[in-house]
Amino acid sequence: MVICPLCHSPLRKEERSMTCEKGHCFDIAKQGYVNLLTVQQKHSLHPGDTRQMVLSRREFLEAGYYSPIGEKLKALVQTHCPKAQAVLDVGCGEGYYLSHLSSIPQRTGVDISKEAVRCAAGKYKDTLWLTATASHLPFSDHSFDCLLSMFALTMEEEYRRVLKPDGLFVQVLAGKNHLTALKNIIYPTLVEKEKNLQPDLEGFQHIHSETLRFDFAVEENLQVKNLLSMTPHVWRISKEAAQALEQTQQLRDQGEVIFNLYKAK
Ligand SMILES: C[S@@+](CC[C@H](N)C(=O)[O-])C[C@H]1O[C@@H](n2cnc3c(N)ncnc32)[C@H](O)[C@@H]1O
Ligand SMILES: [Zn+2]
Q1: Residue 23: inside a domain, yes or no?
Q2: What is the tally of structural domains in the chain?
Q3: Is there a contact between 132 and 37 (Cβ–Cβ < 8 Å)?
Q4: Test site for ligand 1: of 92, 129, 147, 230, most ligand atoms within 8 A of the Cβ
Q5: Is 91 part of any domain?
Q6: DSSP letter at 134?
Q7: Atom nearest to 48 CA in ligand 1
Q8: What percent of the chain is modeled with pLDDT above 90?
Q9: How much is the pLDDT for 43?
Q10: Which residues are found with C-beta within 5 Å of the ion, ligand 2?
Q11: CA torsion sign, 176 to 178 to 181 to 184?
């Protein structure tokens, strides 16, 4: 159930808005999404991914380079949460991964970026798209059977709260060898910091992990640049590396993606 981000009472859907019993009112945008991010929850004017990042991600994902990730997600959710009625994707971006779970009747995507949610709502109908923050999800306790975080953040306490007991949390992370060829262009000498790719999460029981590896070839400079702008590397790239990528017409690379599955205790 969707709740008011200001007073936490239930939000009812009306024709053009969602309202609570205290009279707080949130417009449904013409694309169909609702902005439930309050001014207090915003740490900048336009939080989250920018329009350019969102459009790059849309163009790259639509070309199918990452379809093995979508297919793996679908298979894992089917196996580990076959009766799911309600799924939430936190940090949903432009909606690509959630669209793979169309067999689950109630789908909700949340992102702090208005541009991302607008882009998702423009393409994928029959899904509730909301602008909100992962740290204050606008849902009552135990609303979802399944929750996804695809290359996005993990807020274990909040995710535990909105998941039903025994609900499934799917955490998807980039592995150490994800996009090695791209990283070799961007950071020719950098040694990566070790990160914990299978974290223990308070309130969750780890049930399964799997690493998906696949090769792909990008044959166009535009898509090479799209790939860069959908990764955090876009913030760190040097002028020289950006020039090198400007000349890159072809990129053969590897996806290495970790799926961690947890049950809410
Ligand atoms: C790396 S992108 C992944 C997008 C999408 N899951 C995908 O894989 O295509 C991370 C997303 O998290 C969103 N994000 C960042 N901070 C957030 C927050 N506090 N709450 C919700 N979403 C957030 C960003 O706007 C961005 O869309
Ligand atoms: Zn309210």
Answers
A1: no
A2: 1
A3: yes
A4: 92
A5: yes
A6: T
A7: 25
A8: 88
A9: 80
A10: 4, 6-7, 20, 22, 24
A11: negative
